[in-house]
Amino acid sequence: MHDNTRTHPCLPFPTGDLMRHPARLGIALTLALATSGCSTAAGGGSQKDGKSSGPSAAAASVTSCGRKLSFAGPPERAVALDQTSTETLLELGLQDRMAGTANLKTKIPAQYEAAYAGVPVIAPKIATGEQLRAAGPDFVVAGSADLFTKDRAGTREELAALKVPAFVSAVDCPRRNPAGRTPFELLFSDYENLGEVFGVRERAGKLAAGQRAAVAKAGESAAKGPRGKERPTVVYLYSVFNGMPYVAGSTGLPSEMSRIVGAKNAFDDVNEDWPEVSWEEVAKRNPDFIVIGDLSERGRPGDSASEKRAAMTGHPVVSKLAAVRDNKILEVPGTELDPSVRSVHALGMLAAGMKDLGYVR
């Protein structure tokens, strides 16, 4: 069980006490930064491929979303502000370098449970600047740039003034990245940059290489599709809220997934990640098949795959679509449709599902 009042290893009082006494926050952060070389409660020290070793003074420098981040040595008290960054750090074996996590929308997968159990939860939802500073971070990681705002964790400029580097996933910073790089390649660059920062380059390189191979394997489907036919169209149904569908637009990962497997996102003309549309508009697009993102673990009304199926079969127009009538519907974990270390799994499910539906020979 997570203990949010765990004593800071370099401070004389519990971090929970900091949250009750905001005046101590600035002092605590200064002390934490001044003593960042001390070991964390989980063991401290640098790592190589996820295993603790002796202290390392290896300097590193990376660029994240247009900002150069420099490190005198590997971070010892990293905070991940969302599920995406949390799972990436756990996949890289960095749990004993983590001083906190926040804003998890679903359960942590079984493969990360043991490592995650020792990471303090600084906020069950989106972390505030006060909650972040109470954790005494020396590095902050987020999958989304909008977590770094004045009314949330604080801006990257504010954190830089406190000597706390802030890393944003390259996937959420498209205008700052080289033209032509795909969302998956941007995701893999995150692994490699974090590997550089933490001194786990070999492990990060293996992770990126393995996922590149998974993307290439999924792409073999596109080459084996029926010749002489247009690409099949797909609607990605992410959520149903107040009876209205939310689907994948052109700027989200599903459009890239579609391209890889030889399909086309039916809402590629909408310049948003997950726009709200009408059921009538879904029917108008008349997709060849539908991908349902199952968000059962999130637990909101309309999140489960069964609720989404019921919404479609109960709609007087959508229920008549061939994709619904003939059950040309695939189910994948909803969280994997957003860029994360688990997204290649959903991509593999999509490629396999298209084969089962007859779109791949």
What does this structure look like?
It is a single chain. By secondary structure, the protein is α/β, with parallel strands linked by helices. It has 2 domains: about 15-210, Nitrogenase molybdenum iron protein domain (Rossmann fold); about 225-355, 3-Layer(aba) Sandwich (Rossmann fold), CATH 3.40.50. Helices cover about 35% and strands about 15% of the residues. The protein has 13 helices and 14 strands. The protein has helices at about 15-20, 25-35, 85-90, 115, 130-135, 155-160, 185-200, 200-225, 255-260, 280-285, 305-315, 320-325, 345-355, and strands spanning about 45-50, 50, 60-65, 65-70, 80, 100, 120-125, 140, 165-170, 235-240, 245, 265, 290-295, 330-335. The strands form 4 sheets. It has a 5-stranded parallel sheet with strand order 7-6-5-8-9. Strands 10, 11, 12, 13 and 14 form a 5-stranded mixed sheet that branches. A hairpin with a 2-residue loop joins strand 3 (about 60-65) and strand 4. Helix 7 runs antiparallel to helix 8 (about 200-225) and helix 8 (about 200-225) runs parallel beside helix 13 (about 345-355). The protein is globular, with a radius of gyration of 22 Å. The relative contact order is 0.11.
